[in-house]
Write a structure and sequence with these properties.
alpha/beta; about 240 residues; Rossmann fold
Amino acid sequence: MLRCETLNVFYGESHILRDISLEVRDGQVVCLMGRNGVGKTTLLKTIMGLLTPRTGHVYINDRDITSSPPEQRVSRGLAYVPQGRELFSQLTVEENLRLGFEARQGPKDHKTAELAYEEIYTLFPDLPALLSRPGGVLSGGQQQQVSIGRALLTQPKLLLLDEPTEGIQPSIVIEIERVIEDFKKQRRFAILLVEQYFEFAVRLADDFVLMAKGAVVASGPAADLTEEQVKQHLVV
């Protein structure tokens, strides 16, 4: 599905990502972990094409997309839910969701739309009552639901989630965990999840990738993540 090979990314002369290599297989949930500032968000932006690596490559299904712009990556099945949600604040919830649907490949007829939106409203039952509200007036938890729903409407093959539980109420955290867990069981698409909450990550992930100082320092099955590694590298 996704393969990153020896990515090196700089902000000016600051070396942010150092020889990052990782793999996410079809249907797999991989959790990217590490303290704030180690480069997790930079890595997601590089995968999405919002940043360009100085060296290294990004592959989707063995196709090199390192030089592809973000819109082409969306057409190849990448979807990104950034930290902070980044809804279009002046657009309504319905309009924000429609942007995701219009970005999908394949049919966009009335029946397809009806089924696609019905699934999102089943996943997030609060959304139908919010459709006419501007995105900017929603709570953080409501914005996160819209942002995830918008990404799912693109029909992703790989969903990039950047700290989906950050700054939102516990009830919405539980709902988001349920949604991720359901998709994990279905194995419809892969998920690369950035998450600080250790227990949340271990419950959901198949594999983990642990970063420190811009580099991968440990990786493997989530069940093998040790307490020593957590204490050394994570904010718990």
